[in-house]
């Protein structure tokens, strides 16, 4: 087994709306992009598979509308109101 060296990261906001070049498809919006109708469980699976700490959310017109972190999704999943039907757009609605 190969040891992995980790580096501390600055705390990410749980959910961040995109502005400017990010929402226009600029270089700042790099990383996995998913639709906002994806479930929390599937989003966490995508994050695990890609090794990403966040996902960029896109609406039905494939326009990036925000990003969400793994920490926020885990917090939602551990919350009392969580069901396996909770969608990423529901998580965004809770934080606006």
UniProtKB/TrEMBL annotation:
InterPro entries named among the record's database cross-references: CBS_dom_sf
Span list, region Disordered: 1-34
Name of the featured protein: CBS domain-containing protein
The organism's taxonomic lineage, starting at the top: Bacteria, Bacillati, Actinomycetota, Actinomycetes, Kitasatosporales
